[in-house]
Amino acid sequence: MGEAEKTAMNPIRVEVFSQERKKVSEAELDAGIFGAEVKPYLLWEVVNWQEAKHRRGTAKVKTRAEVSGTGKKPWRQKGSGRSRHGSLRSPLWPGGGKVFGPTPRDYSYALPKKIKKAALRGALSLKLKDNKLLILDKIKLEKPRTRGFKEICDRFELDKALFLIGEKSETVEKSARNLQEVKMLRAQGINVRDLLRFNWLVLDLEALKQVSEALK
Q1: In 3-state terms, what secondary structure has residue 162?
Q2: Which of 49, 82, 206, 212 is the one with CA 20 to 30 A from 64?
Q3: Residue 153: count of CB within 10 angstroms of its CB
Q4: How far apart are CA 85 and CA 92, in angstroms?
Q5: Which pLDDT score, from 0 to 100, does residue 9 have?
Q6: d(CA 139, CA 158)
């Protein structure tokens, strides 16, 4: 039996806390997901893919066919002592059209699912390796309150944290919305760019379950 198979059979045990910072239980992390090999080139490739998807691609210049102006030949071909020109909309003239300028385009491209999943496993493993992974049993607030959510962050001394929740909670999501160093996502929105951009990753048990099932 190889080392990878042995590792996969031994789950990683981590503590689970309440939002009051009391240990309530332990959770088992799949070693194939949270103990995977970190491959920097995969992380780089997936982040580039994400950035390309979000690139607007709306830059546009006008060609000589689109700029305003007459199409009339400015002067006769010969005999005037000036250079030969056929149009004032030529790129050679001020206010003329541009040559080979940008036009609206879609920068997104396809990326195999295996690469995306492998990069996610690597990013999650990196968080665990750096001791920047926190598991909460649940995150609950009675009403939307930024101060209430900030108290949770301060209690765990979290700086620049990404929160993943398993179920929709407008109360919790609205409470985190105004904090600049915090981002709240549902488990389905997990992505490599945010995992690398934030120092901490905080999951509730339902989010942990959903992420583990998606990346098996």
Answers
A1: strand
A2: 82
A3: 19
A4: 9
A5: 60
A6: 15
Tens of pLDDT, residues 6-30: 445 688 999 999 999 999 999 999 9
Write the single-letter amino acid at 10.
N
Contacts of the segment 94-99: beta carbons below 8 A, 24+ positions apart: 95/67, 95/69, 96/64, 96/67, 96/69, 97/62, 97/63, 97/64, 97/65, 97/66, 97/67, 98/61, 98/62, 98/63, 99/63
Per the structure block, which two tokens stand in for 106? 């879609």
- Position 160, amino acid: K
Spatial contact of 46 and 116, defined as CB atoms under 8 Å apart: yes
Q: Is pLDDT at 1 greater than 60 in this prediction? A: no
Q: What confidence score (pLDDT) does residue 70 get?
A: 86
Q: At which residue do the structure tokens 């979290």 appear?
A: 158
User: Which segments within 120-211 are labelled E, that is strand?
Assistant: 133-136, 161-165, 182-186, 200-204
Q: How many residues does the chain have?
A: 216
> Residue 193: what residue type?
R
Q: What is the CATH number of domain 3-54+110-215?
A: 3.40.1370.10
**Every domain range in the chain assigned CATH 3.40.1370.10:** 3-54+110-215
Closest by CA to 153, choosing from 143, 141, 142, is 141
pTM: predicted TM-score of the whole model, two decimal places: 0.83
